[in-house]
Amino acid sequence: MESRLTEGLSRLPDTPVPSNFTTLVLQAVEREKIPSQPVFWQWSWRLLVPRLAVGVAVIGIAGLTYQRYEFHQRAELAKKVALAAEAQPLPGVEALKNFDVIQRMSQPRADEKLLALLQ
Predict the structure, then answer these.
(1) How far apart are CA 117 and CA 111, in angstroms?
(2) Domain positions in the chain
(3) Which of 16, 95, 106, 117 gives 91 a disulfide partner, CB atoms 3.0 to 4.6 angstroms apart?
């Protein structure tokens, strides 16, 4: 099939090329020349607006998420403080006056009978 196509194309007569063909090709190349700046740095509202919208949405969602997290943490802390306050009443001033004596009473004493036997 390919060989028949090649044969058919070879039988076609050459088409005449205009005398200014080279000039036309070079002008077309100049028109399609790639700009010296990359496309990324060009200001285009069609590209800028969607990117800006996505950026604002991401920052907004992150801010709201952080705010909810902080609110939840503070609510949990408030619950824990309320439970601790209700759990045990604070000791009175009278108990704190004798704190040193009470603390010394809870320390273990040496067995005097055992010490006497060792001597």
Answers:
(1) 10
(2) 2-88
(3) 95
